[in-house]
Amino acid sequence: MNIAQLSAEHGIAGSVEFIEGDGGLTMIRISTPKANALISIHAGQVLSYQPAGQEDLLFLSARAYYQDGKAIKGGVPICWPWFGPDPEGRGRPGHGFVRNRVWNVINTQALTNDAVKVTLGLSDTSETMDIWPHAFRLTQEIVIGDSLNLTLITRNTGADLFSITQGFHTYFNIGDISQTSVLGLQNCPYIDKIDNSIEKKQAGEVTIAAEVDRIYRHVSNTLIIDDKALDRCIQILSQGNKTAVVWNPWEKISKEMADLEDADYRRFICVEATNAANDVIGIAPGEEFRLLADYRVM
Ligand code: TA6
User: Fold this and answer.
1) Are 72 and 171 contacting, i.e. CB atoms less than 8 angstroms apart?
2) For ligand 1, mutation pick of 58, 83, 95, 271 (most atoms within 8 Å of CB)
3) Mean pLDDT across the chain, nearest whole number?
């Protein structure tokens, strides 16, 4: 559907507008008294969530690609049906294939509490079957209001059980990485991906002064990003996940990544509600699984 058709079918005067965004990609601009947001239909990715009177909660790279076949660097990329590198080592894209596809707009709705809900979806096609041979319906419910509330629902519409890993690969906008810590992971075991995937145990809060790429296991449902430079705490609530990833590329990798500015590593931290590593989700035919994340400034 083009922008005029989407607007006619799903636009809501004053709160849901379909626009041509960067790279000519169709995007949804949400305006509510509580917060504004920008969602790309390509990748089904929230790019901006800005509560009234606050800086954006999400980091979006000024050098992000907005083109077919490329992931948009920033916001909330959806990793599905695998998190990380191709689990079968067959050269399929890292973090799955849905962040490179155009999602369908299923519904938009003004909720009673001044919030707006956008529902996006994707189902199997012959193209997805070639990449991942399973029938599925993937739905993402995005509620923009006091918080940014995301639900990713995977339904198995085929005849055989399938397994997934997945995640909200969320890039949080922070004032300064050296004044930022992540609370709530104390005592959690983690897989240190930059130290031969050795398992370690978190002592105290997570602070970052070098490249960090960790899969935390047995995580609690509440994490907090304490951002002293912006003088705010972001609360992350999640459900459906036993793992969480913390990633910051630090200086060298930030420079090497063409879709990041050299100093961007100072301006974001990824804290990701995931089903990763051995947190693998099996879904029987006709069944569904929900992964939830909720982000708000405390
Ligand atoms: O989630 C952490 C991570 O898997 C890192 O290992 C790093 O490779 C990063 O994601 C890549 O993210 P990107 O959005 O550039 O694909």
Assistant:
1) no
2) 95
3) 96
